[in-house]
Amino acid sequence: MSPGTDLSEFLTESERGVAEWVFKNNKHAGATTNTLPSAKCLYMSIRGTGGALAVAAIVTKNREKPEAFEKNFMVAILDECGLALEKEMTVREKQAVEERAHQETLRANLLRAISHDLRTPLTSISGNANILMEGRGQLCQEKLQALYTAIYDDSMWLIDLVENLLSITRIEDDKLGLKTQPELLEEIFQEALQHLDRNASQHQISVELEDDLLMANVDARLLVQVVINIVNNAIKYTPEGSHITLSAHREGDQVEVEIADDGPGIDQDAKDRIFDMFYTADKKRGDSRRGLGLGLSLCKSIINAHGGTIQAVDNHPQGTIFRFTLGAVEETNHE
């Protein structure tokens, strides 16, 4: 059959019916055979150990029956195709089993982590609320403020946890549903800064943009969540008074975003694992219940879903830079 040949006559419903019969019965049929001989092609099954895996359609010249050597040669080729297909199917089935096992392990780990990490803040909230109820009029203003603050902090931590869990669930179920459109990085940054940890006021947080009209194709809601998670991470792990800088610039067809701090930095082992789910770089913190290890893993999933990359690198002379890329909005010249 020469290139450019019209194949429409071989793609009719009747031809499809013959191919389906061959696949179902694992036998040859069609032209030059005694089964459905009116077909335009000779249909031969590609066999595996468990039955037909596919069907090959062979256009015969002048509907002549192939000689024994030709038929044996075709069968040999199709048998090799069957072995290759079966091998590929086995690999895919193994990958599917491994993926299901991974998902089950992930869900089990997530459930264990959540059940453990939820207990501490909930116990703290209920305990502090009980003190407030039983100690009315007996607590000084300083003690009352401490209790209110503790309840607020634990409540906000629970809200952030739920938001991250919902996003992770959508990602794992492939239901993230990105709704990208051109967005100003300035507006993304400012929106994120409105929803930071209460301790943000103890740090020097600034925004530096080479172009106030710099835009990227993003899902604004999800990118705001990325910025919040990374900045809150810097607030959590850097001392009071540290500088945290949000910046972005264009690099070809991408926008490179950096969130830098001048804190103690992250050692190399932690940088290699910091985006793994459930990993926390500092397990010795007194408030370790706030180290579930979902935030940065979620950031990586969101950035990857946008087609970008994310990494943690050293800041100089000290500190850490979280750097990620996004698709830039094509620049248009207006005259």
From TrEMBL:
It comes from the Bacteria. SUPFAM superfamilies: ATPase domain of HSP90 chaperone/DNA topoisomerase II/histidine kinase, Homodimeric domain of signal transducing histidine kinase. It catalyses: ATP + protein L-histidine = ADP + protein N-phospho-L-histidine. GO terms for cellular component: plasma membrane. GO terms for molecular function: ATP binding; identical protein binding; phosphorelay sensor kinase activity. Keywords: ATP-binding, Kinase, Nucleotide-binding, Phosphoprotein, Transferase, Two-component regulatory system. Residues 113-330 form the Histidine kinase domain. This is histidine kinase. It holds the Pfam family HATPase_c. InterPro entries: GAF-like_dom_sf, HATPase_C_sf, HATPase_dom, His_kinase_dom, HisK_dim/P_dom, HisK_dim/P_sf, Histidine_kinase_KdpD, Sig_transdc_His_kin-like_C. SMART domains: HATPase_c (SM00387), HisKA (SM00388). Its EC number is 2.7.13.3.
